Amino acid sequence: QVQLVESGGGLVQAGDSLSLSCAASGRAFSWDNMAWFRQAPGKEREFVAGITWRGGSTYSDSVKGRCTISRDDAKNTIYLQMNSLKPEDTAVYYCAAGWVPGTKTSAYWGQGTQVTVSS
Length: 119
What we know:
Largest sheet: 7 strands, mixed
Oligomer: single chain
Radius of gyration: 13 Å
């Protein structure tokens, strides 16, 4: 059974940094594209950052330059380093495994971790 478990969320102040982790279990994801999405209250889930199995990364315009996605295939884990956080970054952040680049489609989703940025 595949499981994705996010961690690292919390309450921070604007300008702070936060590092999210997503540990996958059930099978190896070395050959899968992985991504982070987020969903704010009353809004649709939106793409944040993605990383291909080859290590290429893409970012949404809203986080480009402030976030870095990375992966450690030996640990079956991906990360999202977020810097210079803004109140508009407040959302539940979801990990996606088996993500189809350019879409919101993914084979597997985590339960999400809450990130709250106070002004």
